[in-house]
Arginine--tRNA ligase (Tamaricihabitans halophyticus), 580 residues
Amino acid sequence: MHNGDVSVELARRVVAALDTALDVRITPAEALIRPSTREGADYQCNVAMSLGKRLGRPPREVATEIVAALDSADLVAQTEIAGPGFINLTLDRDWLQHRATALLDDARVGVAAVEQPRRFAIDYGSPNVAKEMHVGHLRSSIIGDAIARLLRFEGHEVIAHNHLGDWGTPFGMLIEHLIDEGWTSDSEHTISDLNGFYQEARKKFDADPEFADRSRTRVVQLQGGDARTLELWQQLVDESTRHFEKVYQLLGVQLRPEDIYGESFYNPYLNEVVEELEAKGLTELSDGAVCMFPPGFTNRDGDRLPLIVRKRDGGYGYATTDLATARYWAGERGATDLLYVVGTPQAQHFAMVFAASRQAGWLTEEHNAQHVGFGSILGSDGKTIRTRAGGSIKLVELLNEAVDRAASVVAERSELDEQERAAVARAVGIGAIKYADLSGDREKDYTFDWNRMLAMDGNTAVYLQYANTRILSILRKAGEEPAQGTPVLLAEPAERALLLKLLQLPSAISATTESYAPHKLCNYLYETATAFSSFYEKCPVLAESTPPELRRSRLVLAKLTSNVLTLGLSLLGIDAPTRL
Ligand SMILES: NC(=[NH2+])NCCC[C@H](N)C(=O)O
C-alpha cells in the first residue's frame, strides 16, 4: 500500500529529482506540495522559488530542471511551469482511478501507520477534587481525548494521565467539614453538590478560627500519612471521581479511573525532586523559599522569575508537582512526548517547568514537551461562561441540555422510533458540544451558542453527521454495497474534485497531530462533505439515465466519503449515527 497521500508521494518524487538533477538535498515537507487552485491542475510544487533564492538562480530555470528530472510518468499526466516558477501538476487519471478502487478495501482509508512510533504521555481532564468540573476541564477533556485518539490511530503509544487536583492545603478544611457533617471512614454518604460543599468549608474556615486551626492540624496529619485522615481523604476523592466518571461517560471521553495520576501520586517523589535539584546546584534560596530561576524568564522590570520548588514553610506547591510529572513520565515511564492539555493562562508555568526540567536533565533533546493550551468559552456577554448564580456552569446540566436540544432538532426531521431517536439525540447533542470546541483554533476563546452549534448547515457536527446518513441512505436505496475491486471512473470534474479531497485524509491527519490542532481535521471533514454535496448535485447516482458502470463507480465514491466522515468523526470522539 502507498504510504501517506498523493502530496506525500509527489514530494518524494520532487526530492529525488532535486537530488539527481541539482545535487540538492531537501526534506519532503520542503518540497512545498500544495493542492492547486488552478483549473486543470491538481497540485502545485512551490519549491523552485525558495531554492532559486538559495542557489542564486532564476526560479523558473530551477523549475525547468526539476520537471526534466521528475520521474513521475506513472502518476503525473502533465506538468506546467507558471508565473515566477510554480510547477503545476495534473495527476494521471488512471492512477487516480486505481487509487480510489484500492482505497475501498482499506479500513484506514489510506492512512498508513507511522514508521517510528513514539510514546506520548498526555495530561488531560485534570479537574479538582471536591469541586465541580468547570468549562476549562470540559475543554481539556474534549481536546485531550481527540488528540489521544488521533495519535493512537497514527500508531503511537499513548498514555493518558488525569492530573486530578487531590492534594494540598484545602484538604485540611474539606476533611474537617466532612467530619462536622458526620462522616466517618466507613459510612456511606454522597455529596449532592460539590461546589456547595467546598464553599461551606471555605466559609467556616474564614469565619471560625477554631475550625481553621483544626484544618491546619488536619493538613499536617494528611501529609504525615495518618491512617484515619487518609481514609476520609479517600472518601472525598472517590466521591468526586464518581462524579467526574459520569461526565466522561456522557461525553464519551476515554478517561478511565486507572488513568488518574493525581497530585497525590507525585507526593512521594517531591523530596527527591528538590534534593536532586539542590545537588545539581540549580536552586537558590530566596525569601526563605527554595527556588529555581530558569533562564529567559523575567518580569517587566527585568527581574528573574522564580519557580518555587519548596515554600518557606517547607511545603510543596503546584510547580514542584509538575516538575515531578516531567521527571516521572520521561524518566520512569520512558515517554518521548509530554503533552499538557491545560488552559492558556498556565502557559508561563509550563514553559518554566519545561525549562527547569531541561536544566535538570530530566528532559533532553530526545523529548518533546508541549503545553497544548486553549482559550476559554465565552457566554453571549463576552465573558467566561457562568450560570446566573455566578458560579461555574454545571457540566452535567449543560450536557443534558445539549442532548435535549438535539432531540428537538432531530424530531423535526426524523422517521426514527423513540429509542433510536434517543441514541441519535445523544450523538448529535454531545457531538455539537465537542465539535464546537474542536473546530476553532484551540488557543482562541469562542462563544458558546446553541443555535450555531446545532445548525444543520455550516461547519458543525450535525452537518457532517447528516451528510453521512444521507450517503448511507443512498447506498441503502441502491440495494448494493460497492464490491471490492469496482472500477472507479472519473468523468466529471466534481468526481475528480471529490476523489482528490478523499485522498487528502492522511495529510489532514498529520497536519492535525503535528500542531495538536483538531480544527484542521474538522476543516478537512467539512470540505469533504461540501465536495460530496457538489458531486451529488452534478453527478446523478441512482437516476435511470446513469449508465450502470458509472452508477457503480459513483457508489464507490459515496461509500469512500462515508468512510472518511465516519473515521474522521470517530477520531474527534464524535459518533456518526447511521440514520438521522
Ligand atoms: N499537570 C498539570 N498541571 N495539569 C493541569 C492541572 C489543572 C488543574 N487541576 C486546574 O484545575 O487548573
Q: What stands out?
A: The pocket of arginine is lined by residues 123, 126, 128, 163, 165, 322, 325, 340, 342 (CB under 6 Å). The chain has four domains: 6-91, 119-165+262-372, 170-253, 395-571. Residues 125 and 137 are 6 Å apart (CA to CA). The chain is about 50% helix and 10% strand.
